[in-house]
Predict the 3D structure of the following.
Amino acid sequence: MPANLSPGFLAARDRLNRAKTDEERLDALQEMLATIPKHKGTEKMQADIRRRIAKLKEKAEQQRRSGKGGAAAYHVPREGAAQVALVGAPNAGKSSLLAALTRANPDIAPYPMSTVRPQPGMMEFEDIQIQLVDLPPITREYTEGWVYGLVRLADAVLLCVDLDSVEWREETEQVIALLAEHHAVLTAGPSRQVDWRVVERRTVAVGLKADLGQQHIPAFRSWAENRFPAIVASATTGEGLGDVRTLIFRHSGVVRVYTKKPGQPPDLSQPYTIREGSTVLNVVEQIHKDFVSRLRYVRLWGSGRFDGQHAPQDHIVQDKDIVEIHLS
Ligand SMILES: Nc1nc2c(ncn2[C@@H]2O[C@H](COP(=O)(O)OP(=O)(O)O)[C@@H](O)[C@H]2O)c(=O)[nH]1
Ligand SMILES: [Mg+2]
């Protein structure tokens, strides 16, 4: 059994063992593939998981063609520093936001249900890219299981609220409730696996169509207070979009770390991105697995008092820290 299987992977494997439908199986297998450590020791397991996913997809496809229904299943491979799912009620303005923040070209329409497939796009933030995934709306009647599956797999969630709708509050509460029913609980805290089934996903709330729904902005802000970090924006006028980018990054669960060589300025062209809460040792390990056994010390610039000083290996790195790694 290869070492270093993450809690997320183990939870997904547990879900696979308990799954009762093919849809649940596929969802669990995709989560296993996304969370399995990618190294030589797990290659056979990875291949096995891929084979099982392919089989289940083929079966679903056959059922679909023969009219038996079987749900279409989509998987969005993670790209960039983090993956953020756009969720919301029909017509909230999710696809317009994706189009405004990325180069993606989603279907945008003044009627509900215009998005039927997941649509990824890469959002630039300063020197990194974050993947946004536009999704079909979340409603009790129409939302297929794979939509919830993709939300559970994302690193964070952007909860899109239609400020131009008089029912924005009820619609949004419904979205939150449906996600929770499907084991994706939206929180302000860090994303985490709660048990074999339930995940918490760190969420930013964004009030959209601010140009049309100005009268709802104060109520939206107080609704979001003490629940989620919140912001208002308009894809049409561009208002607030810069702050949306910043907030998405700040709550994506990743930080940037730069490296430098002794006696040289830091290499600011190539940030490493690593999960928030990672230690100096985690950074060294990510840069090169072999460095860990050869590590003598790390000098750190950035977070607080470690300006060029030797940093303890368990020191938690912050965004924009600079490390200088000394090996034996
Ligand atoms: N005035 C205005 N209209 C918007 C804005 N964002 C979206 N819309 C319109 O709202 C409708 C629904 O947008 P869409 O992005 O397809 O919503 P989705 O169903 O959540 O993906 C479309 O007619 C958009 O043109 C905005 O910021 N301002
Ligand atoms: Mg859409």
Observations:
- The chain has three domains: 7-65, 83-252, 255-327.
